[in-house]
Amino acid sequence: MARVDVIRVKGGSPLIGDVSVGGAKNSALKLMAVALLGEGRSVVSNVPRITDIAIMAEVLRRLGCAVTLDGTEAVIDVPFEPGAEADYDLVRRLRASICVLGPLLARRGYVRVALPGGDMIGSRGLDMHVAGLARMGAEISNEHGFVIASAPAGLRGTKIWLDFPSVGATENLLMAAVLAKGVTEIDNAAREPEIVDICEMLTAMGARIDGAGTSTLIVEGVDGPLKPVRHTTVGDRIVGGTWAYGAAMTRGDVTVHGVRPEFLDIALDKLVAAGATVEPGDDWFRVRMTERPKHVDIVTLPFPGFATDLLPMAIGLASVAEGASLITENIFDGRFMFVNEMVRLGADIRTDGHHAVVNGRERLSGAPVRATDIRAGAGLVIAGLCADGVTEVGEVHHIDRGYPDFVADLARLGVEVERTDVPEPTFDF
Ligand code: EPU
C-alpha cells in the first residue's frame, strides 16, 4: 500500500510568538544560476533548506559544477567551460531551472534546455524569454521538447520591451545581458526584491547594471567570465507574509524576523484595513489581531502590488472575515484551483474568471483536503487553524518546496500539529 505525507492541524488556537524566516526560495534558486556567470567558487548563503535548492544543485552539477549544500550555504564551483544542457527529468521537477538559459547562452554561446511545460497554477509561457534573447541576436528553435538557443558570435545589447513585467523573463534577459556586447535596456522589467538581489550579486561579480528595483534596467555588457563572490540571499517575503496572514486570521500575535516589512507594504496595509495592528521594524515586523477580521478587497499584481503567491492567504483571510470580499488574480490563470479545497473547509467562495467573491464565515469546518501547489498548501494549513476540529492537508510535498520548517514553526507558534504518513489504498484492475 502506498503512503502519503499529510499535515494535521487542530483548529482554534491563535498563532502566538516569534518566527524566523530564511532566504527567499525565488531568489536563492536564481542566485545559484547567477554563479554560472563567474568562473570559480561562489558562495550563496541564507539559502532555504528545501527540495528545490537540492534540485537546482543537481542541475548545476550536471553542468559540470561542483556544488555542496552545507546548512544554509550553497558553494558552487564553476568550471571555465560549464556544460550547456539541462534535461527534462530535472526541469520538470523544478520549473525555475529554466533560469540557466540566459547565463549559459551568455557564457557558452549555445544552450539546450528542456521546456518545463505548465503546472497547477497555470500555463506559464516562455515567449518573452525567447523574444528577448532573439532580439539580442540569438537563434532560437524548439525541438523535441527542448528550447535550443545559439549565438556563436556572442549576444549584443539592444532595447527590449517586455509585454508584462515577468520575473523569469527579466532574470534570464538580465543574466544574458551582463556579458553581451554593448548596452541592453530592459523596459517594463520586473521590480521584485528578488530581482534586486540578483542585480546586487551580479554587480559584486563585476557586472554593470543601473536601475535595479525600477522598471528600466540598463546593463552595460562586460567581458566574461565574471569573478566569483559570496552573497547572502534576501529574506523570503512570501513566507513572512504567510505568517502575517496566519496571525491576522487566527486573531494571534506574531513577530516575523528576517524580512523587511517594506517588501510587504500592500499586504500588510490590507491587514491593517482588516483591523490588525502592524508594527514595522528594519528586518522584522509584528502583526496582532484581537477581533474578527473585516472584509477587504485584494488585487494581485507584479511587485510592488499584492503578490500572487499570497493569494491563498488573501482568500483564507476573506473566508473568515466579516462581510464579502472581492479577490482578483491577475498573474496566473490556474491560481483558483485550490478554491475547491477551501470550499471543502466550508468557505463560501464563488469564482468567475479571475475574480473570487468570498463571503466570510465566523468559522470554517475541519476536513481532509489536498495541497495543489506550494502556496495553496500553506494557505490550507493556515485556514485549518480557523476551522472547527481537525484539518488534514494531503500532498504536503508541495509545501516542502517553499517552507523549510513549516510544521516546527507552527508548533512553536502554539499550534497542535503533526506530520504523518498515511496509507493510501491502491486499486488493482
Ligand atoms: N508569462 C508569459 N510569457 C513569458 C513569461 C511569463 O506568458 O515569457 C506569464 C506566465 O505564464 C504567468 C505570468 O506571465 O502567467 C507571470 O510569470 P512570471 O514570469 O512573472 O513568473 P515566474 O518567473 O514563472 C516567479 C516565481 C513564482 C511567482 C511569480 C510571480 C520563481 C521560481 N517563481 O515565477 O513563484 O508566483 O514569479 O511573482 O521565481 C512560488 O514560489 O510558489 C511561485 C509560483
Automatic annotation (TrEMBL):
Binding positions (UDP-N-acetyl-alpha-D-glucosamine): R95, D309, I331
Keywords, ordered alphabetically: Cell cycle, Cell division, Cell shape, Cell wall biogenesis/degradation, Cytoplasm, Peptidoglycan synthesis, Transferase
Enzyme kind, highest EC tier: transferase
CDD domains listed in its UniProt record: UdpNAET (cd01555)
Assigned EC number: 2.5.1.7
Superkingdom of the organism of origin: Bacteria
Catalytic activity: phosphoenolpyruvate + UDP-N-acetyl-alpha-D-glucosamine = UDP-N-acetyl-3-O-(1-carboxyvinyl)-alpha-D-glucosamine + phosphate
Active site: D119 (proton donor)
Spans through the membrane: none
Segments forming domain Enolpyruvate transferase: 9-410
SUPFAM superfamilies linked to this entry: EPT/RTPC-like (SSF55205)
Biochemical pathway: Cell wall biogenesis; peptidoglycan biosynthesis
Protein localization: Cytoplasm
Cross-referenced InterPro entries: Enolpyruvate_Tfrase_dom (IPR001986), Enolpyruvate_Tfrase_sf (IPR036968), MurA_subfamily (IPR050068), RNA3'P_cycl/enolpyr_Trfase_a/b (IPR013792), UDP_GlcNAc_COvinyl_MurA (IPR005750)
Binding site for phosphoenolpyruvate: K25, N26
Pfam families referenced in this protein's UniProt entry, alphabetically: EPSP_synthase
Sequence similarity: Belongs to the EPSP synthase family. MurA subfamily.
Biological function: Cell wall formation. Adds enolpyruvyl to UDP-N-acetylglucosamine.
Protein name: UDP-N-acetylglucosamine 1-carboxyvinyltransferase
